[in-house]
Amino acid sequence: MILPIVAYGAPVLREVSQDITPDYPDLQKLLDNMWETMYASSGVGLAAPQINKPIRLFVVDSEQIINNLEEDEENLYPGDHGIKQVFINAKIVETEGDDWAYNEGCLSIPKIREDVYRPEKVKIKYLDENFQPHVRTFHGITARVIFHEYDHIEGKLFIDYLKPLKKRMIKGKLEDISKGKIRVDYKMVFPK
After folding, report:
1. 149 a catalytic residue
2. 22: which of 64, 127, 132, 184 lies 20 to 30 Å off by Cα?
3. 148 is known to lie in a ligand binding site
4. 81 annotated ligand binder
């Protein structure tokens, strides 16, 4: 089932999410719905707060990005083959490498894209959908998507990384989003 995406301004997007346990109700159904919602919205990642659930859960499919690179872009992310992965109760262990810019967007903040600087690599510990523990290091565009989704479970948004002038320049657009004065081709729910 395709779920509505929570728009900028909703309090859940600013909450630090809670860990879940294996007995979380209907977890597999929730995961199926999150994947379906993400793909229906043309996303490459989706965090539970974006569907109004303040839990430490997100999904990432960076394979889509890697598989759709143009021929002249194939060397942009060497060694990054992309992933399709569920992250439960994730915690960043360490980051490394130089910060690099990428033009990020967010399903909860539609029609706004800005360059955000993030480290090259992220080491993260997490549970998969079977609650099996993992500690892995990701790099390239996959690390980028993980950083972005991880921020959601920490109550952060990509716009928090923008310089004050950029934030002032997009303030009106953000207000329009929070008031529902925007049209998108996926289901959204706006703050009241």
Report:
1. yes
2. 64
3. yes
4. no
